[in-house]
Amino acid sequence: MFIIPAVDILGSKCVRLTMGDYGLKKEYELSPLESAVNWQEMGAKRLHLVDLDGAKSGNPDNFGVIRDIIKSVKIPVEVGGGIRDNKTIESYFDTGASYVVLGSILFKDIGSVSPSLLKYRGRIIAGMDMYDEKIAISGWRELIDMPLIETIGGLKDNYGIETFIFTDIKKDGMLSGVNLELISRLAKLNISLIASGGVSALDDIIKLKELNLSNLKGVIVGKALYDGRLDLKKANALLS
Question: Pick the catalytic residue: 8, 51, 61, 172?
């Protein structure tokens, strides 16, 4: 398991939201590019970039900002937020993204991106944003009632998606601790998973490590890193 710093981009600025609420945003002085380079220098092994404007509009609104980040760092980058067509997927891979995270399109019109799911098998990650175990889409503004376990199985068996990011929206940006019960339950599935939401301090990383889950590959951390509650170097040392 490794720490994946999040760089959330809104209006070309680096921000953090609380429970996905665009009205509850906190802007940071460092630009998205400066933040990404900083986390790389602090020892990050991967970055998680999110186009928050794109998550609402369905367009790659911050493509230029993300492209500049990808070109400026040497570590793998996963990109998400409003990626809903084959052209955008290909554009991000062409610019150097290691992974692309798909959310809404997987549940609204997965057939439209099936060529990319086949072409980039192993590099497409499913973003499962959860609110009371319902899947949230369209920038977390819409909840859909789909059976979670069956949905995951279908994405894996029918479309070859093997890695899933599970974000607990109720804990995202709240610094309230991770949902260990949900992570433990999902880890029983034959998938690779990345946890997101709620990390507040090193103690949360310790608890995740103590779960001893071989298929828990990483944990995305945002506000705890930006607010200085979690030291990335210490967290990496704990996990090494």
Answer: 8
Query: Band of the pLDDT at 31, cuts 50, 70, 90?
Result: very high
Using a cut of 0.90, tell me whether the model's pTM lies above it: yes
* Residue with tokens 């992974």, as numbered in its chain: 99
Rounded CA-CA distance 201/223 in Å is: 10
Task: Assess whether 129 carries a catalytic annotation.
Answer: yes
Catalytic residue among 129, 168, 172, 204: 129
| Known catalytic membership, residue 53 | no
Residues 48 and 156: their CA atoms lie apart, in Å, by 22
- Full set of structural domains in the chain with CATH: 2-239 (3.20.20.70)
Angle, helices 63-72/86-94, rounded to nearest 10 degrees: 30
Q: Give the three-state DSSP class for 138.
A: coil
Is 199 in a helix, a strand, or coil?
coil
> Six-digit token pair at 1?
């398991």
| Tokens of residue 80, six digits | 């998400």
Q: Which residue has the tokens 């460092």?
A: 30
Q: How far apart are CA 85 and CA 201, in angstroms?
A: 37
Please identify which residue in the block is written with the tokens 């959310």.
103
pLDDT of residue 18: 85
Q: Which residues contact 228 (CB under 8 A, 6 or more apart)?
A: none
